[in-house]
Amino acid sequence: MEHRISHEEMDTILKQLEDDYVKAVKGNSSRNVEDFIEQFLYDSWDYNDQNIDLIKAVMSRYTQGEIYETTFSGAFNEMVDHLQEKLQQLDEEEIYPMIHTPWGGSFLVSFVDGLVIQYFTGIYSVEDLRKLTPQLKEVILNALCTEKQ
């Protein structure tokens, strides 16, 4: 893994969110990228809906300086590293070139997080996101097909 941080004295809620994320990525038993992304999206909508208060608490602590930037970004990068590793394992034939760049996992997370922010602000409901998931999956897969440069 590229990014490793010390978890000593880490904010307990941030640590819980990181652990939950890693567990979900590792526990996604999909055997290909397409199925993985679909399940990842459904899991993301449900998890964020169920844990909105924890996520808001961590974000608040971060913006108030109670969680160091390096700790926050380190935890985030570690989560993305786990996702990147899983995606690369599922795409052995390199059908999705972007997965095999340093940014593949990050692109997926940024797309999902953008939609989660829109959920938080009331633009989408979880039901809306669940209904849109088949189309969102196709958009993400098309983006991941972009050739490496």
**Proportion in β-strands:** under 5%
Shape: globular
Domain module count: 1
H/E element string?
HHHHHH
Class based on secondary structure composition and strand pairing: mainly alpha
Number of helices: 6
Poorly predicted parts: 3-9
- The chain-level mean pLDDT equals 88
Describe this entry's structure for a reader:
The protein is 70% helix and 0% strand. Mean pLDDT is 88; it is low at 3-9. It has 149 residues and is an all-alpha fold. It has one domain (12-144). The radius of gyration is 15 Å and the shape is globular. Helix 2 runs antiparallel to helix 6 and helix 4 crosses helix 5. It has helices spanning 12-27, 33-50, 52-63, 69-90, 104-120, 126-144.
What would you say about this model in short?
With 149 residues, this protein is mainly α.
SSE inventory with pairings:
Layout: H1 12-27, H2 33-50, H3 52-63, H4 69-90, H5 104-120, H6 126-144
Keywords, separated by commas or semicolons:
mainly alpha; globular
